[in-house]
TrEMBL record:
<feature type="domain" description="Serine aminopeptidase S33">
    <location>
        <begin position="19"/>
        <end position="146"/>
    </location>
</feature>
<protein>
    <recommendedName>
        <fullName>Serine aminopeptidase S33 domain-containing protein</fullName>
    </recommendedName>
</protein>
<dbReference type="InterPro" id="IPR022742">
    <property type="entry name" value="Hydrolase_4"/>
</dbReference>
<dbReference type="InterPro" id="IPR029058">
    <property type="entry name" value="AB_hydrolase_fold"/>
</dbReference>
<dbReference type="Pfam" id="PF12146">
    <property type="entry name" value="Hydrolase_4"/>
</dbReference>
Amino acid sequence: TKKLVERLTTRYQAANGEQRRFLVVSCDHAGCGYSEGRRCFVDGPAVMTATMRRCVQTALSQLVSMGLTSPPPWFLLGHSMSGGLSLLLSHQLQQEQAASSSPTSLEVPSFSGCITLAPLTSMSIPPAPICTILRMIAFIFPYHGMPSWISGEMDNREVWDNEVAVAWHMTRDVWGVPGGLGWARAMRWGSAAGLVDISLAVQVLLV
């Protein structure tokens, strides 16, 4: 998603006049990317879709304050986990549109569709008793890392394109072991529970 947003933004910046017909607004969840917050923590679907909704509301209100007579049509774009969250928020917005008697009365107006790239639509969900235990532990120790025998550790160099990118990030990211963004850190209990809840919510939506 990051690369697609960068390319869309570059295209927008290179265009001029009538060709400049779109604007890309990206949203970091708390603790994701380079935003502030608990690093690498995945909250539940309700919190994360609410964050996306607030981002959209802020962007639309700023556009109106700049002189637009009404909010322009807009689309949600998401990949993987954000793709699943985009599906959930899209469904909420469609329900609000269907129940509204007037488009101008909507809390988030002008929603026009959702674009997803390999969205999170399913994952290996543990049996119900295990999910219950997971949520209990996550409630008590949400930010603690899971034992390595449950959650394997991955060398984060695998997520970057090349050695130049690895070298750049190693000098700037300090979370985890020295020189790495989350290197040698297992998944947090709260993140595991959050991902399970997001996946379950999307699966229910798609049934």
